[in-house]
Automatic annotation (TrEMBL):
<feature type="region of interest" description="Disordered">
    <location>
        <begin position="1"/>
        <end position="24"/>
    </location>
</feature>
<dbReference type="InterPro" id="IPR020472">
    <property type="entry name" value="WD40_PAC1"/>
</dbReference>
<dbReference type="InterPro" id="IPR036322">
    <property type="entry name" value="WD40_repeat_dom_sf"/>
</dbReference>
<keyword id="KW-0853">WD repeat</keyword>
<feature type="repeat" description="WD">
    <location>
        <begin position="109"/>
        <end position="150"/>
    </location>
</feature>
<feature type="repeat" description="WD">
    <location>
        <begin position="24"/>
        <end position="61"/>
    </location>
</feature>
<dbReference type="InterPro" id="IPR015943">
    <property type="entry name" value="WD40/YVTN_repeat-like_dom_sf"/>
</dbReference>
<feature type="repeat" description="WD">
    <location>
        <begin position="248"/>
        <end position="282"/>
    </location>
</feature>
<protein>
    <submittedName>
        <fullName>Protein rae1</fullName>
    </submittedName>
</protein>
<keyword id="KW-0677">Repeat</keyword>
<feature type="repeat" description="WD">
    <location>
        <begin position="70"/>
        <end position="108"/>
    </location>
</feature>
<dbReference type="Pfam" id="PF00400">
    <property type="entry name" value="WD40"/>
</dbReference>
<dbReference type="InterPro" id="IPR001680">
    <property type="entry name" value="WD40_rpt"/>
</dbReference>
Length: 348
């Protein structure tokens, strides 16, 4: 690990735009508003921060807008679909609802018995879903103090993705629990991960026909739900350098082209096309891991955080070098537009 840091001291080898006034500790989640270029970051420093991102031609600027404090480190965030409100959850076992755009004060709208690792707003249900290390999933109507429904999970929630009606939850025992949100009180399917090691992240296909899963062992699985499509399932290696294997920390589908990005503990982010099974672009490795990432609503900005992700333990954390950065990359069409599949009409 030390060789890696010495041999590549640059936190920003891809010349991305840097967001000003970043958190004082590692970033745990990044979320763009679905309506405008407001970026929210949650951090281990117990804060939730928001910046307004403005674009002028090929340059970007960031302006800090507001922040709120949790009692303990914050692990996850999401926006309401109308772009008015941010939800954040974490180690204080609660979710705060922050009416950011109106300048209102945050209120607690959800509680668990252990840290809240994942959160999603489901506009089709007008409900908030929270996944916790207490081995439950809870659905919340934010106007009520008690959950609408509590779903037992086989183990702690590590990852969650929703594309209504599909929801996939990755748990600590490598189980992937699939729900059809039209019948949310029953598991639709439980699938052992196609990857041999701990699940780090999941992402539902934009067409709801399957999902991606990433593991700590530098591998991604592409899984289709339909039994007739099982022949299309595959796994591939990524975020590896020689014998060094790094965690896949983040999976994000491009909102327009439906290609996807992976980001890892090796400090790299890559763009992929699952349909043609190709890597579209490999970016240069940053000096620290990429802990999390996200696209904005039209896919014109890819945000990622370069910071220590604790994948090598506390003994490899050097506070002197472990500065936290949030960068913004402007994807070129060639990086994120899918390639035509072999044997198909190239104009398709």
């Amino acid at each position: 690990m030390s060789n890696f840091l010495v041999s590549n001291p640059n936190p920003n080898p891809n010349n991305s735009f840097e967001v000003g006034q970043p958190p004082n500790d590692s970033v745990s989640s990044l979320s763009f508003s679905p309506k405008a270029n407001f970026l929210v970051a949650t951090s281990w420093d117990s804060q939730v921060r928001c910046w307004e991102i403005t674009r002028g031609g090929t340059s970007l600027a960031s302006m800090p807008r507001a922040s709120i404090l949790h009692d303990q480190p914050v692990l996850c965030s999401t926006w309401k679909d109308d772009g008015t409100t941010v939800f954040s959850g974490g180690c204080d076992k609660q979710v705060k609802m922050w009416p950011l755009i109106s300048g209102g004060q945050p209120v607690t709208v959800a509680m668990h018995d252990a840290p809240i690792k994942e959160i999603a707003w489901v506009p089709e249900m007008n409900l908030l879903v929270t996944g916790s290390w207490d081995k439950t999933l809870k659905y919340w109507d934010t106007r009520q103090s008690n959950p609408v429904h509590t779903q037992q999970l086989p183990d702690r929630c590590y990852a969650l993705t929703v594309r209504h009606p599909l929801m996939v939850v990755g748990t600590a025992d490598r189980n992937l629990v699939v729900f059809n949100l039209q019948n949310p009180q029953t598991e639709f399917k439980r699938i052992p991960s196609p990857l041999k090691h701990q699940t780090r992240c999941v992402a539902a296909f934009p067409d709801q026909q399957g999902f991606l899963v990433g593991s700590i062992e530098g591998r991604v699985g592409v899984h289709h739900l339909d039994d007739a499509q099982q022949g299309k399932n595959f796994t591939f290696k990524c975020h590896r350098e020689g014998n060094e294997i790094y965690a896949v920390n983040s999976l994000n589908f491009h909102p327009v082209h439906h290609t996807f990005a992976t980001a890892g503990s090796d400090g790299a982010f890559n763009f992929w096309d699952k349909d043609s099974k190709q890597r579209l672009k490999a970016m240069l490795r940053c000096s620290q891991p990429i802990a999390c990432s996200t696209f904005n609503n039209d896919g014109s900005i890819y945000a990622y955080s370069v910071c220590y992700d604790w994948s090598k333990g506390a003994e490899n954390h050097n506070p002197a070098t472990a500065k936290t950065h949030i960068f913004l990359h402007l994807p070129q069409e060639s990086e994120v537009k899918g390639k035509p599949r072999m044997g198909t009409n190239s104009r398709k």
